[in-house]
Design brief:
Elements lengths: L1 E10 L2 E11 L4 E5 L6 H8 L7 E6 L2 E2 L4 H6 L1 E4 L11 H12 L5 H11 L15 H13 L5 E5 L7 H14 L4 E6 L2 H7 L2 E6 L2 E7 H7 L6 E5 L3 H9 L4 E8 L6 E7 L6 H10 L4 E6 L4 H9 L7 H7 L4 H11 L6
Parallel strand pairs: 3-8, 3-9, 6-7, 7-8
Antiparallel strand pairs: 1-2, 1-4, 4-5, 9-10, 11-13, 11-14, 12-13
The structure holds adenosine-5'-diphosphate and magnesium ion.
């Protein structure tokens, strides 16, 4: 659906996007994750034909954005970082205006009605945009992107500046839209991307530094991860048994944390997952496993590592820094408050 080959973008002397390539299939929901200034908006602006590219090739729905810009643009609904809303128009006037601008062929009234229902703004359609809350204005921004029913939605920081309750509402809306659209969304906040996207492109300094699912990212980038075991059974025999498993490099006793058991740190050889074998052998001996975890890096650590170079190496140190995540906060907020335009 989207093909980007060796894309570069220069602003004056500054190379903001450096030889970036990726492709996105129909129906995917992909997150651009990267710190401010990474180049996310620049790439989105090029995909949508808002700005020109310096080098490379970009096509959307099979249409090259330089050679057939009108056809490429028709496939895309775009919510820019600063949605171009007209404050003095009502919601319906504005969507009618966008409908004319995009030269849409669907019957006007039912098409706009359907969009308003979909993004839950049908009850505010006669309000002036300036009188809406930020969450509702963002919905109107998404509604304008949906006019003309484009296959691809490109949403630049769709939840920035919203409160936790509004963030949850917009996330739900995006997940719902992903059933019928290919979606790219950007954020500089990991939890935002993690909550919605299956695939993550981490962008740093104009380059794609990772492109994978969240699960694979944390697995593949956690080399030398250790396994933590809490088990019952005679210490020296447990150690002997586990040390004999192929793929186990070492096992160290950590001490007694829960009475009647012992904690161990197991170092596996690279690229082997020995957890299944540990489980089978321990259960053969009827020694109980109370805990068995792979100490993989969290996505947060990986993000820091890929974008800063200042990642936290030890899990225990990282855990100290782990505050309540944004999504937890949002969930707590949702339980307490509700946004409703009345
Ligand atoms: P992001 O959306 O990831 O925050 P941007 O794509 O907005 O990043 O910016 C990438 C880099 O390009 C930044 O260093 C930014 O300062 C620079 N940049 C963006 N737009 C322009 C512009 N119109 N002129 C000059 N530099 C720009
Ligand atoms: Mg941006």
């Amino acid at each position: 659906m989207i093909e980007v080959k060796n894309l570069s973008k220069r602003y004056g002397n500054h190379l903001a996007v450096k030889n970036v390539s990726f492709s996105i299939d129909e129906g995917e929901i992909v997150g651009f994750l990267g710190p401010n200034g990474a180049g996310k908006s620049t790439i989105m602006n090029i995909l949508t034909g808002y700005i020109s590219l310096t080098d490379g090739e970009v096509s959307v729905g099979g249409y090259n954005v330089l050679e057939e810009p009108e056809l490429a643009k028709r496939r895309i609904g775009y919510l820019p970082e600063q949605p171009p809303l007209y404050q003095e128009m009502t919601v319906r006037e504005y969507l009618n205006f966008i409908y004319d601008l995009k030269n849409v062929k669907f019957p006007r009234k039912p098409h706009i009605n359907e969009i308003c229902r979909l993004v839950h703004i049908d009850h505010v359609e006669n309000r002036l945009i300036k009188n809406l809350s930020k969450g509702y204005r963002q919905r109107v921004g998404i509604a304008q992107a949906l006019v003309g029913n484009p296959d691809v939605l490109i949403l630049d920081e769709p939840t920035v500046g919203l409160d936790p309750k509004q963030i949850i509402e917009i996330r739900k809306l995006i997940v719902g839209l992903s059933k019928h659209h290919t979606i790219i969304l950007s954020s500089h906040i990991l939890s935002e991307i993690q909550a919605v996207c299956k695939r993550i492109l981490i962008i740093n300094n104009g380059e794609i530094v990772a492109d994978d699912t969240a699960v694979n990212l944390s697995h593949n980038l956690s080399s030398n991860h250790t396994i933590h075991l809490r088990a019952q059974g005679p210490e020296s025999e447990v150690k002997k048994l586990i040390a004999s498993i192929k793929g186990v490099r070492s096992i160290t006793s950590l001490g007694v944390i829960e009475p009647g058991s012992m904690d161990y740190e197991i170092e596996p050889a690279e690229e082997t997952d020995v957890r299944k074998e540990i489980f089978t052998r321990m259960s053969d001996r009827k020694w109980t496993i109370l805990e068995l975890n792979s100490n993989e890096l969290t996505l947060e650590q990986i993000f820091l590592r890929l974008t800063d170079g200042s990642f936290v190496a030890k899990k225990s140190e990282a855990q100290k820094d782990e505050a309540l995540s944004d999504s937890d906060k949002a969930a707590a907020f949702e339980a307490a408050f509700g946004e409703e335009e009345k």
